[in-house]
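Pasting two entries for a bug report.
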Amino acid sequence: MKTWNSNRQISWKTVFAVLLALCVLPGVALATGTSAGERIQNQATATYVDANLNAQTAQSNIATVEVGQVYSATLAEDRSLYAASGQSVNFSHVLANTGNGEDTYTIALAQGISSGDDLDFDNLAVYIDQNGDGVATAGETLITNGGGTGTVTLQADSQLDLVVLAKLPTSTPGQTAGATLTVTPTSGIVDDLTAGNGVDTLDGTNEDLATVTDNAVLNVNKSSTYNDGGTDSIVDDTVTFVVTITNTGPVAAYDVEIQDALDLTVFDVTDVTDIVINATEGDYEDTVADPAEGTANTDTINGFDPIAVNDANNDATTGDFGVRGHDDVLNADETISFTYTVPVIATLPAGTLLRNSVNILGDKNDDGDDDDDGEDVTSNITTQIVPQVYGVTVTDTGVNGAAGVNDGGDDDSLPNDTQQVNTAASGEQVLFKNIITNNGNGTDIFELTAVNGNFPAGTVFSFWQADGTTALLDTNDDGAVDTGPMIAGEVKTIMIKAQLPAGAYDGDGTNAGSFTATVAATSEGDANISDDATEELLTITAPRVDLSNEAAVGASTPDGNPLSNEDAYTVVGSESPTTTYNAAPGAAVNIPLTIQNDSGVPDSFQLTAGASWNGAVLGGMPTGWSYVFKSTAGNTITTTPAVSPGGSYSFYLRVTVPSTAVFALADYSSDFDGDATVETIDGSSPADGDGDYPVFIRVVSTNTGASDIKLDAIDVSDSEKVTLQANQTGQIQPGGSIAYPHTLRNDGNTVEAFTLSAVNSLSASGWGNNILVDTTGDGSGNKPFSTLAITDSVFYTDATGAYVSQVFGQTVANSLVFAPGEKLGISVLEFAPSSAPDGTLDILTITATYNAGASKVVNIDQTTVIQGQIRLSKTVAVDATCNGVADEAFAVEAASKANPEECVCWRLVVTNEGTAAADDVVIYDTVPAFSDYVPGSMLSGAGDFGTTANPGASLIAHTDADDAEARPDGYNAKVVGDSITFELGTIASGASVTLQFQTKVQ
């Protein structure tokens, strides 16, 4: 180990304090806030109970605001040096874009500085220092010569090394020459990092000064190379530094001291052996008169470690590592250099700046000390950036298994990359939970996809927050649902909902369990990085319904067992009726009944009755007999309301016996089971010997196809004389319509021709739709796509945001053509027939076909017939000053852009469009990605305030706490983490409530 000459009078404390201040910059983040152009989206979900006590869910549209650009940059820094007459000199600078978007900078270089000088440089130019060594070398890009200007463009969170190359004229010692580097951004200022903004006190400038000397001139330059260790992490990565010292003066320099301290917050050096000296070049002279430095002409470049003699910066600590050296004599025009390599700390986050410079001291005038001006020299700052590595895992939860409970738990309770649910009913929504982990070293977004294996055709998969109340959105606007930004090491639980199609089940002739799908998470930063897990459903039970008799009208005693069929009837061997009623000719008989829904989804049931059943066909009532189904309130019904899973509905069948004796026989026989044999039923107790009229009662699901049939009888007494962007859900009334807004966007880099189509799953039952486009320019859809003619102009938004039109089919027959960045708003109007039963679910598939028919995108809108119908409308507006009042009218897409640190107002109008009151209305919302909730910003009030920017006192503030608020309207609200909940209670038919909250753009 080399020791230092204790007789040397060198103040390393002062010198290396400067060096370490330059080096210690780990984890510096250049960019300001959320990236410009980022689209922040928000969507709300409502749950409520309808008039039939069924739990319902509705989702709002998606509201969007775009992040604006903030301009910010820095320039480092004023430089001064000594040089010989006629010599070329290099001044190094660093330009950094610290804003949140791309910016272009104008660079000018001029003779002279604000404090004055003696000379002009003979030649003056500024270059891009592509190898970062602080020296303009052959092949590096010229930006401009002195007196001119040039431009450079930098992405957000990036920097550029610049070097000013200047040639001194013939001159005398003590004379000075200066140059001023000026950088002008598109907008804003460039912060001069020189202390006090330098001598000129101005931003956007660096001033360089060269002083002519006839002493030795020490130039020190440093360059670095980042070495990828070849793994999926940075655990084996290193940085190699090259330090070059040249005496460009006319005389020798003496006692040149080199000490290069390392920043231990970024470099993994715990022992001197971690520093590898790769090479030394040049003649490091050690004289016989200085034996402490070793043998003459040997290398004196060594790594140093923290022992007492190695207090590199003289701060009374011994924790300094680095590289040091000494040269007794560095002759004129002589160069020495050394190269060394150090490891990078394996846990550094992506984007960490690895900055380093080296300082040297030397006796340039041979006066025996190094305290004169220009005898301490600091190199340029070399910068490397830790690269981002990407990694993700998708796993099952492995916990909370509970057989028969569909709650998102893993029913095998094993961490095996398979999230298992053991059973679900046909038409049920199955809940799976997965865990996403960001294994990379920087923030990443993971695209989510679900690939169906053998789930029944028509199964729809959707992605939700872990609580299942708020849908995950497309936060990076690439057309696919994603996790939102996840920091390095973040673990996020998500819920996957699989909506099973009604009527499909295990063993139905088409489907057989177990059922699997694959959910994958793919890195936005590197599409080659992906992981997946399996979602498994062991069995789908067949849809069931249980029809049974009651003792009296209004009574309800279902058996509560979904696996049993009370009062079951089969064609063979079950000729005895459940109950036989006595009636005289002309009389009416009430048969009390109860339906128990043994399926896993709300369901409505069609009601029919007849006098025969062969296992497939229900025959009509005998001549003259009539019947009608009645609710317990006496209203005529043909279909039940939606019955909740496991719930029941009581009603009765009223059969009227004809008064004509020939149609009301006291002894009746018929072939009631379709076996071509006439049979007689005697259901009286005790048997009375005469034949009774069979009454078959059948119920059939309007949704799943589940059915049940039972047999009663009437003994006539004797008498000589019977949803592109985005999938949506909504409700509709029978005979009504609903409009779903969708947006078709071309986000690629090719021009595409589109055709549009939509198909109702219940078209055979009278459901229909129109895809409306805007042909008038008022922003509203008015004409069906299917009826467009070659003379129609269709309005859309071009890439600049202008609302323009094109002639349909003019470019490609029967198509609309959109360039990259253009989008089309459509309104899909869906119609329900007036006979649509309550609870009916129609699945509308909207398809946009392009690429000459080879490609397509699909949205699915799910519409349920309901009497109590909640409609949600979400809008957004910018509040730049965060004063709680919107600066503009609310809209589905904000008219203005929101910059970081500005606020956004989110508004939701909740309207009951049904004919019955909606009870227990709860609205679930969430703070969108790239945003923070503004405390105390929740507001609500009765009424629909639409797009009004400031409804004033009509909206009343809520507290953020989960407490009972004493408000006249009874509304409550709370904020828990990023979840926002409004509890609105009952909303009358036709009434509206307006809700609002604020977020601040990060």
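Entry 2 (this is the one that rendered wrong in the viewer):
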Amino acid sequence: MTKGKLILICQSSGEFITNDDGTLSYEGGEANAVNINQDTSFEDLIIKLAEMSNLDHRTISIKYFLPGNRRNLITLRNDKDLKRMIDFHGHSVTADVFVNGKEGFDRDAIKIHASRENVVKLAETVNHVGAPSTALNTVALDVEPLSAHAIAELDAYAPLHALSGSAAASDADGADGSSGSHASTASSPSSEHESDFDSDYKPRVSVAFDINSPSPTGFDTSNSPADAVKKRRRTASWRSGARGPTVVAVSDDNDVERKSRRKKNQNKSTVAVNDDSVSAIAFYDDDLPEKVVAEWKECITGVGQDFKSVKEFREALQKYAVAHRFVYKLKKNDANRASGICIAEGCSWKIHASCVPADESFRIKKFDNTHTCGGESWKNAHPSKNWLVNVIKDKLRNSPHQKPREIAKSISRDFGIELSYTQVWRGIEYAREHLQGSYKESYNRLPWICEKVIETNPGSFAKLITDDEKRLKCLFISFLSCINGFQNGCRPILFLDATSLRSKHQESLLTATAVDADDGSFPVAFAIVNVENDDNWHWFLEQLKCAISTSQPLTFVSDREMGLKESVLKVFENAHHGYSMYHLVESFRRNSKGPFNGEGRGALPGLFLAAGHAARLNVFKKFTEQIREISPNAYDWVIQIEPEQWTSSLFKGEPYNHIIQNVAEPYAKLMEEIRESTIMQKIESLIYTVSELINTRQSESSKWTTKLTPSKEKKIQDEAFKAENLQVFMASDILYEVHDESTHVVNIKKRDCTCLEWKDCGLPCRHAIASFNISGKSVYDYCPRHFSVDAYKSTYSESINNIPEIGAPVGTEETDSDAMLVLPPPPRSPDQQHKAKIKIEDPDKRTVTCSKCKQLGHNKASCKTNL
């Protein structure tokens, strides 16, 4: 398969049959083909499939098989599920999906999505049984229904809903080129000037220069795209040097810029402010073509001169200032007016222009063209520290995560001054300190936040530990509302994970996350530690035990490579510990080495998940044997990773392995979004995110009218539909014999069925529901409380009380360095970071064998044996 692309065989309107061997098939209906790729959105796919199958897009459900597993189907619910399906079929050309929903396609849905780019391509209708996959052509045709192959429908995996995090805003700096017979500007000023009335502004000294160049928007249709790139014209850029401004020819080729980037960084040269690279040709200002300079000198003629817009006026003023060798700043600068003065103190030069609505023009109203500074503005064009910090502060307010190179480019574009990477980096440090407070002194507020958490939210836990040098070691926080929510409404499962705090001091964020009644993530506690190691994890678990006082056995789930099993069982004596399915699948992918037989590497992840979800030991062995047939090495890895810690058939704790998402991903995304913030601001963001999550789900659940949460209610309804045609024989008040393709016995008192599905997922299976139907019992009386809406509401019943002044910045004037209570951890070297990582030895780590001497530990390229 072309990487990232997949042909979906979409089947609908059929019925499901269970074969003698337990596999599922699909009979009748129709099959259509659709092309998708990594850019396909779940919403677009829903609309396309609904249209093809004549189904209401609001009721449609999509399911698919994992490669090698024809017993269970995965449900597609969002974009993440769709991309995960594409990854699972990474080595396949086609994949079967099964579509179900209420008949009747709403044509208005197409109109709503008409303005969006649709990356779903309709392929010609195919007969799934008879036509080979290679016969599928990607062409747009009308779809005619054909008979399709069959596969059964089964809800397999429920999604773990991610925590919501605010997206960081980013600026888009536009470029606008204009051309003439003599010169063209390289780009327009930043859009920021339309709102910053007091921003300093210096003329841009980067210009595009080509006397005989054609219009930048024109192109020759006879040329190929490659020819067009080769013929891209060269432009010129001003640079300030000992002899004044320098003009250098530049190329638009990005690859040249990338090649020179490393060398420029090593030499600490100025930052490349264009996407272009400097060529070997250079001109000083004395050599600049006189015709161009003469034109620029006449860009501003005086009072009464009209321009089409304020943007055109700014561009003209830039060229005028460069040609006359002075620097100005715009004191008033918006869409309706612009007033500029020379930056030299006391100089009389000034200009004012404003909009004339009647003429639809922008006109110069005042102009004093006399400089009394003697050219000092051009001589002193290097920015002061305060000026640079103020400019960077304005940029960071609009886009907090801009990088030094991006800021350097925008300063060059807006002010015509080129700065080194170090200058801009230091300016960013000072600007952030002004905006956010001192990063270092922010640690001094950690004792304050511990006091405020307990004061504003009585019953909560907050504890701070420092080392002998008063440096941060560990900080633990757990709110009472989260503790009560976990104990009153969640299953006794906690996912343990760690993510980087994205700090210069390399701290880690440790988290304990529960699962609510709708399989959504529910944060219970978090800790910030100076390093992720065994001691700090053990400390975190001890604090967690103090916060969660329960006699009920807990099930902890973590990445196997973190090695937390021993610490968990030491702190929580009666607990169970399992390995995260998400991390196991990722590790399995990494450790699946060739050679591969049969269905190949692409089928291995599906078989691995099927083995993990197998309810019976013999079924687990069946899937692992299929893995052995494809790759003996992969089989050895699976057997050596303690199946009793992750498989449904062997694990003794609370069932959890239906959750195959990365629970720590929301935390990692949040830390990425606020990576430049102080530690107090990061704690504030964590608390705010958890608080908003509670409030949002509290509001959403107040509108629910069912007894079970939406995902569980849908599961019960699907099973009830499958139970309608089953034959049931009543053996006693508690025992029922149910005939499907095979015979199963249901014991409603023990809440058990011989199919083991009731025990595995916690909800009654189709056989149990069929038994309830003939006995007049309600299925909801046999559903666990932790799947009910009442349990969900109990989880989110208590909100987190606000903490006043938590986001107040810490100024350097507020704290004396001698009175610092908490210091940040010392930055760690790469070697220390490597040693700090908790990784256990891979049981199936590949050993290199030399093909010459047949010895272990080296290859033939480094072999020293002379054969």
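Dev reply: Rendering is fixed now. As a check, the viewer should reflect this: The first strand starts at residue 5 and ends at 12.
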